[in-house]
TrEMBL record, chain A:
BP GO terms, sorted: mRNA splicing, via spliceosome
Pfam families named among the record's database cross-references: DIM1
Entry keyword annotation includes Nucleus: yes
Record localization: Nucleus
GO cellular component, one term: spliceosomal complex
Protein known as: Thioredoxin-like protein 4B
Organism, scientific name: Serilophus lunatus
From TrEMBL, chain B:
Coiled-coil segments on the chain, per record: 31-62
Stored InterPro entries: CCDC84-like (IPR028015)
Region of interest (Disordered), residue spans: 78-113, 128-154
Pfam families: CCDC84
Alphabetically ordered keywords of this record: Coiled coil
This protein's record includes keyword Coiled coil: yes
Residues spanning the signal sequence: none
Protein's name in the database: CCD84 protein
Biological classification of the source: Eukaryota, Metazoa, Chordata, Craniata, Vertebrata
PANTHER family assigned to the protein according to its UniProt record, in alphabetical order: CENTROSOMAL AT-AC SPLICING FACTOR, COILED-COIL DOMAIN-CONTAINING PROTEIN 84
Length: 149, 223
């Protein structure tokens, strides 16, 4: 279902998206359109995009096309979803080791909707890190490997 | 008929009526003559006023010239007061008649000197308005005479500006403490701009992660 969501294919476009989205949560999904879990996630994103249109803007980014951001955001698993608000990165504590992005897909559409709502409310209050409302059981597990510099 | 009724009502003598009723032609002639006389009278008045204005202007010019001549004469006063003041005196007499009765020679010199430097105002000339008139003659003000060349210029903000103003007011309603409230959405950034991102393997502030990323990529490039 990835053809329903707008895509960004260069660093310049990603920069433009980060700078221009105002007063709404910017959702950047990093992954590959052909990956199985990505397809699942994209499905949920596409189905909720309309309902969340007042709070969030969703874009898909191919990790092969923007290597600089793939490294800058430390993306080692796909799909990884990064959240921004007014050009500022929003961190979320999901109960997983990495707070800077959401790794994997969501179990239900409602989980994603709840998460966006919490991020939006936190941002309106000026919080740069919020706690995820999703049940930790539904969060995908992964190992965060430390890559030596 | 009206006249007859009037006569009967007021019980005046019938003979008088013949004499009082003015025939219409006579009346027309009277009206025309009246208009002509009025126009003539007004023209004569305007002429007289214009002549007076010209006279006053002439008098002012002569006064100014005399003042200037007197000031040029001033430096020479110390050398020969008796020689200079008589030529200056009679001239001034003729022009200043009403203002300075009996000018006391040298004493009025410094007075004129005070006037000349005080004349620091720029003189832009008499405004000759032969046909149009001005505020004193009660002419129509220029902002009311703009009948031709009325291209429909809208005064005030246009429609797009109005919409933008509404957007700005909506923004003001948002909480001021929200994340990135002072973020400049329209700033031009270079191609090497990176957003403020707290990276995974960094301790410390977010800008440090950006700094560290740049150092890392610098090292990698050098390798």
């Amino acid at each position: 279902m990835s053809f329903l969501l707008p895509k960004l294919s260069s660093k310049k476009e990603v920069d433009q998206a980060i700078k221009s989205v105002a007063e709404k949560v910017l959702v950047l999904r990093f992954g590959r359109d052909s990956d199985a879990v990505c397809l699942q996630l994209d499905d949920i994103l596409a189905k909720t995009a309309h309902d969340l249109s007042k709070m969030a803007v969703i874009y898909l980014v191919d990790v092969n096309k923007v290597p600089v951001y793939t490294q800058y955001f430390d993306i080692s698993y796909i799909p990884s979803t990064v959240f921004f608000f007014n050009g500022q990165h929003m961190k979320v504590d999901y109960g997983s080791p990495d707070h800077t992005k959401f790794v994997g897909s969501f179990k239900t559409k409602q989980d994603f909707i709840d998460l966006i709502e919490v991020i939006y409310r936190g941002a309106m209050r000026g919080k740069l890190i919020v706690r995820s409302p999703i049940d930790p059981k539904n969060i995908p597990k992964y190992d965060l490997l430390y890559q030596g510099i | 008929r009206e006249a007859a009724r009037f006569w009967r009502e007021n019980r005046a003598e019938a003979a008088l009526r013949e004499r009082c009723v003015v025939p219409p032609e006579e009346y027309e002639r009277f009206v025309r003559a009246l208009e002509a006389a009025l126009a003539e009278h007004e023209r004569r008045n305007e002429e007289r006023i214009r002549q007076m204005a010209a006279d006053i202007r002439e008098a002012e010019r002569r006064q100014r010239d005399t003042v200037r001549a007197a000031l040029q004469v001033e430096p020479e006063l110390c050398a020969g007061p008796s020689v200079c003041s008589p030529p200056a005196g009679p001239e001034r007499d003729s022009c200043y008649g009403a203002e300075q009765p009996g000018p006391s020679g040298i004493q009025t010199g410094p007075d004129l000197a005070w006037m000349e430097p005080g004349q620091a105002l720029t003189f832009i000339g008499h405004q000759e308005t032969e046909g149009k008139g001005n505020v004193h003659t009660g002419a129509k003000p220029p902002w009311l005479t703009e009948e031709e060349d009325e291209t429909k210029q809208q005064i005030g903000p246009s429609y797009e500006e109005f919409l933008k103003q509404k957007e700005k007011q909506k923004l003001k309603k948002l909480p001021a403490g929200r994340v990135g409230a002072n973020f400049d959405h329209t700033s031009q950034t270079s191609s090497s701009w990176l957003p403020s991102f707290g990276r995974v393997w960094n301790h410390g502030r977010r800008w440090q992660s950006r700094h560290q990323f740049r150092t890392e990529s610098g090292e990698k490039k050098q390798k």
